[in-house]
Amino acid sequence: MIDKPISQEEFLKFREFFYRKTGIQFEDSKRYFVDKRLIERINATDSGNFRNYFVTLRFEASGEELQTLTNLMTVNETYFFREEYQFKCLVSSILPELTVNKKDNRPIRIWSMPSSSGEEAYSIAMYLLEYWPGISLWDVEIISSDIDTKILAQARRGCYSPRSIQNLPKELLKKYFRQNGDEYQICDDLKQAVEFTRVNLMKAADVRGYRGFDVIFCRNLLIYFDDLSRRQAADTFFDALNPGGFLCLGHSESMSRISSLYQVRKFADSVVYQKTKEAQ
Ligand SMILES: C[S@@+](CC[C@H](N)C(=O)[O-])C[C@H]1O[C@@H](n2cnc3c(N)ncnc32)[C@H](O)[C@@H]1O
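# S-adenosylmethionine complex -> structure
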């Protein structure tokens, strides 16, 4: 068991380290949340104290403990049809404009980042199938990524609680899910429509291969970042988007103060950000 509590100095050391690794910034008010999880892992790894544990976190070649701790530190709150107005905007404004301008026959590529347990990516798939006539004419690829390997396993399983599905129209629940006791299992067709991958948005090596997207949803992640990490995220998404591609953020998030790379587009259902057609 841990031999003494986490000191203020140790907390600050950890906070700086974790911020550099993930972009997540813990305020002082999160001290209890952070300490609780650190102590849990110090005990689980028989490290005895913070100092020994911190050595493992920094130098373990496999990075396994850092991943386990990251999985504990993330906030995975999400649900089906969260901020639905953006899915409406996708089918009624973004995709019609994109498809008119698309000069090749390549699939429309959508990146839902971060995925958490997958509700956002599956909601996008359902929305396209239900409300976008273009689905019969265009191939669509939906890729969904998160830093948290445990939550990604849950997303791939596609099994949801009543709380997760409470905003879903009853007819869609019936059409795309099978009820199993208290849980709702998403159907195989939707599962196959989304590819889930592990990506740390703050790690250049992780995001390098993510290119050629027409639409990116990055909702309810930037709220955990400071301005520096937000700027880095803005640059990453810019590189990942095709010219003319769109970036959709959460309702309390904005690019305007963070980056001048994007054009603000005010559609009837939502404000979104666009990489200009001339940009490379
Ligand atoms: C609150 S959820 C948002 C899920 C979904 N986009 C939504 O709006 O409902 C935030 C997610 O961000 C993930 N996350 C945190 N830092 C990340 C990073 N550096 N790279 C990728 N994902 C990250 C967490 O694991 C968590 O699942």
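# post-check
The radius of gyration is 20 Å.
The mean pLDDT is 96.
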